[in-house]
Specification:
alpha/beta; Rossmann fold; 8 helices
Length: about 240
């Protein structure tokens, strides 16, 4: 099964990303499929409204090399924009951003020029693009976090509407860290969980991954398979300190 990991290129990878990457890579290669990294680098709000610096792609690639994780294909949303637009135009008989989608029972409004609407996080035209991107990359398994809950119904709607094969979608619980009696997300903005911080401290990537297994997997000697992932993975605040 082909899997995909979509890092936003506005920051470095952190332990939560590594956890997601390891599960995606394991599930792809144990089934004879491909593990694809598709850089999330064309969102209107970040590019135009917030003027985000998208300079982290080389750093992310270097992190994958340091971790010695096999990536079968690197691609990006910017690189495939033309092909995605062509397919959307063909299937919808017109450009998605300027029309309404209608069926006998469902109408999805506001698929209009995003200049007039906040297009993040889950407006229809963004989900429509994801469906086409996944189709072009032949994604058959999507391992997702909390966005699965918000987007699954609309994603499924577009697959049915355009008669495209729908990938198996699987929820992966977010990685948390414990601080005192509280839990917090492992994210770009909280804690010192960036992969570069482990690299700079001279920690070997195999040691990093093996230690992460102790907190993320039911059987720490097993593989990064979906059925071996802890339902609530939590790493201690002093992880590898």
């Amino acid at each position: 099964m082909n899997t995909v990991f979509n890092p936003t290129t506005n920051g470095e990878l952190h332990l939560g990303h590594l956890y997601m990457i390891l599960v995606n890579e394991c599930e792809a290669h144990r089934s004879g499929g491909k593990f694809i990294i598709r850089f999330d680098d064309n969102q209107f709000k970040w590019n135009v409204v917030e003027h985000v610096n998208f300079s982290f792609r080389p750093i992310i690639v270097n992190s994958m090399i340091w971790l010695d994780i096999k990536v079968d294909k690197y691609t990006s949303q910017l690189e495939t924009e033309v092909d995605v637009d062509k397919m959307l135009y063909y299937m919808n008989k017109g450009p998605i951003p300027v029309v309404e989608m209608k069926t006998n029972t469902v109408q999805i409004p506001h698929m209009i020029n995003p200049m007039n609407h906040d297009p993040y996080p889950y407006v229809p035209w963004i989900t429509a693009r994801k469906v086409v991107e996944d189709f072009l990359d032949e994604i058959s398994l999507k391992i997702r976090g909390d966005d699965l809950i918000s987007e699954y119904a609309l994603y499924s709607y577009f697959c049915d509407l355009w008669q495209l094969p729908q990938p198996v979608q699987w929820f992966l619980p977010r990685l948390f860290t414990e601080s005192g009696n509280k839990l917090s997300n492992v994210s770009k903005t909280s804690g010192n969980w960036k992969l570069s911080s482990f690299y700079e401290r001279g920690i070997r990537p195999q040691d990093l991954i093996e230690n992460l297994k102790n907190y993320c997997l039911k059987d720490s000697k097993g593989e990064w398979t979906l059925d071996n992932v802890e339902p609530y993975p939590v790493i201690p605040e002093d992880f590898l300190k």
